[in-house]
Amino acid sequence: METTSAALAMERARMRWERTGSDADYIAFLEAEGTWQRCRIAELVAAARSRRQVERVA
Q1: Residue 58 has pLDDT above 70, yes or no
Q2: Which residues contact 33 (CB under 8 A, 6 or more apart)?
Q3: For residue 21, which phi and psi values (nearest 5 degrees)?
Q4: What's CA 11's distance to the chain center, in Å?
Q5: Model confidence at 54, in pLDDT bands (50, 70, 90)?
Q6: Phi, psi of 53 (to 5 degrees)
Q7: pLDDT per position as a tens digit, 13-38
Q8: Rounded distance, CA 17 to CA 53, Å?
Q9: How many CA atoms lie within 13 A of 26 on its CB side?
Q10: What is the Cα–Cα distance from 32 to 52, expressed in whole angstroms?
């Protein structure tokens, strides 16, 4: 999942949870937040790998 899509899904889940206050919606928000975090970490790891490769060539 793309980070932007994950962030939007997390925001929708957060707004729903704030509106309803239900435990199920809170859990859905936490799951969406976890998905966003995994996407963001994957982006950061890819950027670090790319940077290392550039530094090796230079």
Answers
A1: no
A2: 10, 13
A3: 70, 15
A4: 11
A5: confident
A6: -65, -40
A7: 999 999 999 999 999 999 999 999 99
A8: 43
A9: 3
A10: 31
